[in-house]
Amino acid sequence: MLTLRTISSLGLVALVMLTGCRQDMHDQPRFKPLAKSDFYADLRSARPPVEGTVARGQLHEDTYFYTGKVGNNPGDYMPFAVTDEVMARGRERFNIYCSPCHSKLGDGNGMIVQRGFRAPPSYHTERLRKAPLGYFFDVMTDGFGAMPDYASQIPPRDRWCIVAYIRALQLSQNATSADVPAGQKVPSTPPEFRGDPGSGATLPELAPVSSSEKGEAEK
Ligand code: HEC
């Protein structure tokens, strides 16, 4: 027959077992973050990833595409074909990310520079005209001196589009009439203004095209 005493001691046993379970959940065999551990020879409980581990989406097998380098030196070719779409993308991205300092022309006189930031060198110097394509990619990827890197803002493909556009800018600023294909007229005769061109706040009025040029255009 169950006495009050046995009932209460059974209850006590049950209580102890239950709290025991609860304690197990609290004291799991785990390490506190970065705690010391005698289990491993280097005493670090936080284990480095197994050698050769690659995070998802981070397998950058095509090294040239991601670094612009062949071995330790910048390469001088595009990792994909340059199309109209690539050039348009390059121009758009360049004007957004680079022109504030380098200017839309690439002469290094962008708005931020006009307001006091250190002036970058012009892209139209002998040295930078001869610089290989991969060099420009590398400057964007890792930064250069006072210039921050743009690796997190501009994905690799867009960086290459900008590289292609910079080369086009360089060509545009150093072209001679010999670069114009035979039979084509350079279209950019400077416009003539009627009177004073003004401050630029309003569009200047163009002088009427002279009759000889009109004849050319109509041909
Ligand atoms: C915040 C202003 C700023 C922006 C934006 C900027 N640059 Fe620069 N860049 C500089 C400065 C300043 C230098 C010169 C750094 C130095 O000599 O310490 C420079 C230098 C360079 C050089 C020349 C490196 C050399 O060998 O002399 C290249 C190429 C270049 N930038 C490309 C770019 C491209 C491409 C972008 C757009 C993705 C860009 N920069 C955006 C400020 C800027």
Number of helices: 9
Largest beta sheet: strand ordering? 1-2
What is the CATH C-level name of the domain at 63-174? Mainly Alpha
Please state the overall shape, judged from the principal axes of the Cα atoms: elongated
Structural class: mainly alpha
Over the alpha carbons, how many angstroms does the gyration radius reach? 34 Å
Question: Overall pLDDT, averaged?
Answer: 86
Fraction of helical residues: 40-55%
| CATH level 3 topology of the domain at 63-174 | Cytochrome Bc1 Complex, Chain D, domain 2
Write down the secondary-structure element order.
HHEEHHHHHHH
Q: Tell me the major beta sheet.
A: 2 strands, antiparallel
**CATH homologous group name of the domain at 63-174:** Cytochrome c-like domain
Which stretches are poorly predicted, pLDDT < 50 over at least 5 residues? 214-219
Number of strands: 2
Kindly report how far apart the N and C termini lie.
123 Å
Strand content: under 5%
Q: Spell out which ligands are present.
A: heme C
CATH-level-2 architecture of the domain at 63-174: Orthogonal Bundle
